[in-house]
Amino acid sequence: MTRSPLILVALALSFALGGCGSRSFGNKIDDQFIPSEVSDKIAKANPDLAVGSHIVVTSYNGVVLLAGQTPRSELKGMAEQAARSVQGVRKVHNELQVIQPSSALARSNDALLTTKIKTQMLTDNSISSSRIKVITENGIVYLLGLVSRQEATNASNLVQGVSGVQKIVKLFEYIN
Predict the structure, then answer these.
(1) Pure H helices in 46-140
(2) Which fold has domain 104-174?
(3) Where in the chain does DSSP place strands (E)?
(4) Which end of the chain, C or N, has fewer beta carbons within 10 A?
(5) What would the pLDDT profile of 66-106 be if each residue is shown by its tens digit?
(6) What is the CATH number of domain 3-98?
(7) Which residues contact 101 (CB under 8 A, 6 or more apart)?
(8) pLDDT tens digits, residue range 19-76?
């Protein structure tokens, strides 16, 4: 019952953004549901992943990013295995750091940094911001998307110029 309204919202959103990017309609729908399915599988894999870790799950074109922090290396591996078991996941980038979860202040700073980057991307005509996802965790900026090599370079150069970025991790798929 609750999934039906979510599907309708996802369909409406996909139709509205239909002209944005080169992903198929099915890929866009899958990317709406993959993160929650991966998060559920991770939470069920071990209680410490649900409570003692901070894990952000993002999907673009079936490519999943696991970012955040977990206190033990075996939990990092469990999270990756759980993510790989979800239908529709083509590839997993496990960027979890084996450290204590970040503070609320650090997460707030990460959100601000992501907003600054996305805002600058929107004003830059050399970057197709609708085809790039920006995720920031602990000062590390992850870039996902289906882009040309030039768009990837332009996006990376833009991010480098933003104050507060500790590191850039490019996880792009290239169309050329």
Answers:
(1) 47-51, 73-84, 104-123
(2) Histidine-containing Protein; Chain: A; (3.30.1340)
(3) 54-60, 63-70, 91-98, 132-137, 140-147, 167-174
(4) N
(5) 999 999 999 999 999 999 999 999 999 999 999 999 999 99
(6) 3.30.300
(7) 52, 53, 54, 68, 69, 70, 71
(8) 445 556 666 676 789 999 999 999 999 999 999 999 999 999 999 999 999 999 999 9
